Here is the input.
Amino acid sequence: MSDASRDEAVARASKGPSPRLRTLLDTIPAYVPGKSAASTGGPSWKLSSNENPYPPLPGVLEALAAAAGQMHRYPDIHCTELTGRLAEHLAVPASHIALGTGSSGLLQQLMQISVDPGDEVVYAWRSFESYPIVTRLFGGRAVEVPLTGDEAHDLDAMARAVTERTRLVFVCTPNNPTGRALRRDVLEPFLDDLPADVVIVLDEAYVEFNTDPCRADGLEVYRNRPNVVTLRTFSKAYGLAGLRIGYAVAHPRVADALLRTAVPFGVSTTAQSAAIASLDRHSELMERVDELVTERGRVREALLEQGWTPPDSEANFVWLRLGQQTTDFAEHCRAAGVAVRPYGHDGVRVTIGERHANDAVLTAASAFRREFLAG
Ligand code: PMP
Here is the structure.
């Protein structure tokens, strides 16, 4: 078949009846990935996806390259070695761990194991943008509870929003995109007040950046609560976003269900090897995390000095509530070579990157204030 007749066949077919897909798909917003920086001719930085700015730790690439030689084989479906290493590292039984294709994959599985069409899913808003997507995709009814005025979860209102139809509650701590984290003394009573048959997911994608000594720790609070699932990822602090690997820690009934709903062989051998190699280098990794935490403090202080009011962040990003000026601010940064992440008319999330990148965003923020917010 020639190229022309192939194109003609496609054009003819596209005019005919199309396959019937779920109408609900038209109502589901697409996941919006952080943009790359515009090419301005000068240096540019991507601070729009909460990625780790550092390349893989020494030795991780070598482990991954060695594993890549096995790519003609399916991976170990049970991720046996990594599960054992994680169990040791986290001090939890191996039967409590379910690995997945990023915590995004596990979020979908959590919907699959707990939500029937029409069931309610409660979460704070704004929070991680995947929650409304997966909720609708699996036929759930999203119950969004506004954040408090200081950008934190309103746990009292969330508890009131739970009804007999609620099957799942997402709690994102530290919260993406605002950075606010929950303390143990407020989270525990909330967990204990909810019905014991409702699955509660503590999404701790940014937990390694949380330096609050009073922080709620999912690994502690899940132990005596069989309905609590702690969700973590190798994408952020561990810098393995491109490999798609995350994990849930839960009591065996939930962990088993997660394993049964996983895409078979979804977690690649390369991802498993890189994760093991990263765990081997945990202290070096935490040194890098410490540097990012120090930078986070520096950036927040500088923004406060400029007159902004970023909330306290325990993650690798800061949040600026900009309302109607959200798009203008993001465009202004983009023109200065920095991609940040705008959210509708709510605000902008700025990932903490390498020092030069952070300086660039501070310069852009200061210029924006002078030009657009003076007086
Ligand atoms: N949870 C939160 C709160 C996130 O911000 C992200 C990534 N943006 C994820 C989960 C998913 O991360 P991944 O799928 O890369 O593990």
The two ends are 68 Å apart (CA to CA). The pocket of 4'-deoxy-4'-aminopyridoxal-5'-phosphate is lined by residues 50, 102-104, 128, 172, 176, 203, 205, 233, 235, 241, 246 (CB under 6 Å). The mean pLDDT is 95.
